[in-house]
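Predict the assembly for these four chains.
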Amino acid sequence: MRLGAAIGKMRGGGYKATPQRMAVLRALVEEQHQSLEEIRARCPEVGLVTVYRTLDLLGSLGIVRRLDLGDGARYELAENHHHHMICESCGDISEFEECPLDPERLPSGRADFEVRAHSLEVYGRCGACR
Amino acid sequence: MRLGAAIGKMRGGGYKATPQRMAVLRALVEEQHQSLEEIRARCPEVGLVTVYRTLDLLGSLGIVRRLDLGDGARYELAENHHHHMICESCGDISEFEECPLDPERLPSGRADFEVRAHSLEVYGRCGACR
DNA sequence: CACTAATTGAAAAAAATTTTCAGTTACGGA
DNA sequence: TCCGTAACTGAAAATTTTTTTCAATTAGTG
């Protein structure tokens, strides 16, 4: 389970699994690519500063990833695969499951780079906007 | 040529190709994924506000893309293909050319989405950090 | 070459993020 | 189970980033 793994990573790094951190984590589990304010709305009991600090911490542990797809910063759980579809007209962000990557052509081995995860953004126009 | 196409897009949208805008464009051509301050250092004669406004404009014209890979906002010319390799240890960002995408598995047609461009971020550890 | 809508820059305002610091708490070890 | 301590929190303040305002300037059409 997601939260369990996150707690493990925190403890392993010498960090405490506080109620505030768990609340932020739960907010992140509920929906992907939320803005700071959206996250905050899901855990109003946690102070603003703590949300920032928690997102930082989770980011440095590789649990959360910050992304900016044109509007402000957004946060999401760092899945190993992540595939976004972004409409350049209306700005809508959606996700799709099937991974279009050919692992053979990833820069593993080559370039001496060890691949752990990836995030793909496909830009274009959604059905509604065409 | 890049700059020519950009000027065309600006004119076409009813916008003027001013010296300031051209200076920002030239800065962007010199290097990809720069921070605002890095861009500004390459065209110190352009006012801060104008740099922001120009990046906005170029963004809305699809010429420039803003991205955030963990540190602050960065800007890059919006190539149709873009492949980043990000080291989670040292934060270094590099690019690679070969496109590992299988076009057949992109969400074109399916999902009613018209694909125009993509950006791929591969996360892992670079040679130096391993 | 003149006209006009678009553009610029400086200052001010607003928004986002980070720092400070005193008080609180999680949790490993006795 | 309880203690001690390093880690954590929240409020306010500071800092940084981004946007707005507005009077003066300019690119580019006609």
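Chain A touches chain B at residues 59, 62, 65-70, 73, 78, 85, 87-88, 96, 98-107, 111-127, 130 (CB under 8 Å). Strands of chain A lie at 64-68, 73-77, 83-87, 93-95, 114-125.
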